[in-house]
Design a protein that fits this description.
Length: 423
């Protein structure tokens, strides 16, 4: 979501004649787009602000946008008095106000709903992967999560607006569409005629665009994986065979404390249904270890589910208490030392899953999307349909953005391949 927000901010500033620079000392305007999901991320924002304050030229405007801005509010000005603006994730379209009035301070952390989408100019050039938000906010209230506070209640964008953005992305360079939302599969929009649109309708409409060759979505909430969405994995081949469906913990007791769906059988049934309609599908998850009151047995259940579902490409974090959340006030907070040990064990399991899956890909031919050259400039990096990095030697001739690649080697972190034909 922050990548998308950053791209839209950059596009908006370009329409005002601004150009990007890599050098902080040259910049007239410096914007830190921030994430508050973990405490560490918030701390990093303030140390970065300290560095920028010292490096920037005196006349430069600087400030923060995004979730740390919303979380900190006016306090941010107390901590860093030189800040010119503090704009929440739904107010960054107000940036021109500070550019036009550089001698003022601008604070806006309102939850403005969908206003920003209407006010931002369309992108005139889109990267190969286009992030298209379909909804903002979340109604789920997981007890550890700051998102309902920073991004507000869930609100779905009108179907036609999302499709217009998708068409614009396809016309300006995108090959892959990633539909985004904190609760993306909860997308539901009812138009003036009473017609209800779900995420599956967005996928079906996007798949009709000839320029679009790959579609994915993130992040999913398990109980919102309705049958229409499961079935479209079987019928729509442009939808990648890869789904991030966070479980967070394998312990029903901890899931209850997290206010997450705690019926593991229901979760496993969704995975089985997905595999029935799309036998090559792979699942990834997010995990939190060391949630308050998590015992060794609870954690062992997390390890068990990670092994059983064979998650690939997953994210795992130590629980981090966040302001405005119920879990931060819970008793029996777990020590950092125990959290670290558990995280190491879980990562070992997830790495083993990833290594096994990567090895199983050797010999396969996959249609992959170009990402970038590697650091040496001698190789090219592609993304497989499972979001694995695949490295190939740079060919002499120009390559297309989508390439069929034969996988010839693999390790835990990536695949190595050979280009076999252009598509
Ligand atoms: S579903 Fe995701 S975004 Fe919503 S409250 Fe839970 S963790 Fe946060």
């Amino acid at each position: 979501m922050n990548v998308y927000d950053g791209q839209r901010i950059a596009a908006m500033l370009k329409t005002r004649g601004m150009v990007e620079t890599d050098n902080v000392a040259d910049a007239d305007l410096i914007i830190l787009n921030t994430c508050a999901v973990r405490e560490k991320a918030t701390n990093k924002v303030y140390s970065a602000l300290g560095r920028i304050r010292r490096a920037k030229k005196e006349s430069a405007l600087f400030g923060i946008v995004g979730c740390v801005a919303r979380e900190s509010g006016a306090d941010a000005f107390k901590r860093i008095p030189e800040l010119n603006f503090v704009l929440g994730p739904q107010s960054y379209h107000k940036l021109p106000e500070i550019i036009d009035n550089p001698d003022t301070k601008l604070l806006n952390i309102d939850l403005g709903g969908l206003e920003k989408f209407d006010e931002l100019p369309q992108m005139t050039q889109t990267p190969l992967v286009a992030y298209i938000p379909v909804q903002e906010g979340c109604n789920h209230c997981c007890t550890y999560c700051i998102v309902p506070y920073t991004r507000g209640r869930e609100i779905s964008r009108p179907f036609n607006d999302v499709i217009n953005d998708t068409i614009n992305a396809a016309n300006t360079g995108a090959i892959e569409i990633c539909f985004l939302g904190q609760n993306v599969n909860g997308y539901q929009y009812i138009d003036e005629n009473g017609t209800t649109y779900r995420l599956s309708d967005l996928i079906r409409a996007a798949a009709q665009l000839p320029e679009i060759q790959r579609i994915r979505f993130t992040s999913s909430y398990p109980t919102e994986m309705t049958d229409d969405l499961i079935e479209i994995f079987g019928t729509e081949k442009k939808l990648l065979p890869f789904l991030n469906m966070p479980i967070q913990s394998g312990s029903p007791r901890i899931l209850k404390l997290m206010n997450r769906p705690d019926d593991l059988n229901a979760y496993k049934t969704i995975v089985e249904k997905l595999k029935r309609v799309r036998p090559d599908i792979q699942i990834s998850s997010d995990f939190i270890v060391g949630f308050p009151d998590e015992t060794d047995e609870d954690f062992a259940e997390t390890l068990r589910i990670a092994r059983e579902i064979k998650y690939i490409n997953s994210y795992s974090f130590k629980y981090s208490p966040r302001p405005h959340t119920a879990a931060a006030l819970m008793k029996n907070q777990i020590s950092e030392q125990i959290k670290s040990v558990r995280l190491q064990k879980l990562d070992a399991q997830l790495n083993e899953n990833q290594r096994e899956f990567n090895m199983s890909c050797i010999g396969a031919e996959m249609l992959c999307l170009y990402e970038s050259a590697d650091k040496t400039g001698k190789n090219l990096v592609f993304r497989t349909p499972y979001m694995q990095q695949c490295i190939v030697a740079k060919p002499d001739q120009k390559i297309a953005s989508m390439q069929k690649i034969k996988i010839i080697d693999a390790n835990k972190s990536c695949l190595h391949g050979e280009i076999i034909k252009s598509e």
